[in-house]
Amino acid sequence: MIAAILIGRKGSKGFPNKNIYKINNKMLFEHPLNECKKSKFIDKIFVATDSKIIKKKAKKYDAQFIQRPKKLNDSKALGEDVYHYVVKEITKTHKNIELFVLLFANSITLSTKMLDNAITQIRKNPQADSIVSVSKYNMWSPLRARKLNSKGFLDPFVKFEYFGNPKTLNCDRDAQGDVYYADMSFSIVKPKCFKNMKNNLLPQKWMGKKILPFFSEAGLDVDFEWQIPQVKFWLKKIKSKYS
Asked: Per the confidence metrics, is the pTM higher than 0.85?
């Protein structure tokens, strides 16, 4: 069995009610649920939320509800802890789970074809722990990142020597090579990723250690309202490439 898990709270400080913000006549959380429902591989969909609106509308997509404890409903709760809890609840009654498709309510840059192709890819690679959607963002390379020092000036966030010989680096965004970010559109993981999470790769420890990339473009999860135009652009201009 392949089980999809969507998580999302009713509260948000950076963008209030972001998970129920409407784009193309659907609330954000409905987009990933709709793509999951159309998948030829995903057998069951589970939703973990404290939102009555999400809980009610998720039924339209044949999703089953899992109650999250209060400690996992505040802004300090980590996604990895929520997923871990939900996985434990699901496996109490479903023993033969091949893969978990992990989704966020505020991440809609995905398609059914992307999910099905990613599932096919990880099935072909027994060594992989997971496959995750990644987007290339060379302009946000760690080479360009800065942090404030004690005197209020900007220092490199990462020592330039990490990238090799500093003399070979320059201001070209492609100078350090391609930079891929897990864009949070989806993570498809094997159950073993949740057995020893503390030993997995930071910062998203639910992905395990051996992580396959599923190459996307301009993917993101929405944390601020100013990101909405990029999501709309993705749906209008990019989604068709993956459908």
From this structure: yes
